[in-house]
């Protein structure tokens, strides 16, 4: 029982869906601000305990896994038959969808990582010498937006895999002897 396009499509879509769910959950539980505690010449920001940072990194990890699975399955030889990259790239629609998939995944990764890292930095560097600090958190909406793009990226990978299957079948048909 080997690997086929349908299995890889399910894996890519499943990983993208998990990334989406984790990202949306991280966005929904992210606190809007911390509680400032004024001391002698400093403000210490106390943030409620929440798994936003861990969920953000997990969402990013599943996005990367989905992207790697989609990319590798595009060039993986199925049923012991390898198809040269040049034959796959003859399909202009496949090239367009591959580029869209990669670009969407990269943009999604940026939108997930930027607020996740910012949130982690806010939690680590919580002592401020500016007494007017209002204990900020990462910008609201970016992790959720990245999560939706993560889902879009996995759907674009799905379309790319369908187009890859078509290009592979066209190439293998050309190789068969005509009788």
From TrEMBL:
Keywords: Membrane, Signal, Transmembrane, Transmembrane helix. It comes from the Eukaryota. It is a multi-pass membrane protein. The chain crosses the membrane at residues 57-76, 96-117, 142-163. Its main location: membrane. Residues 1-26 form the signal peptide. GO terms for cellular component: endomembrane system. It is found in: Endomembrane system. Belongs to the DESIGUAL family. This is Transmembrane protein. It comes from Quillaja saponaria (Soap bark tree).
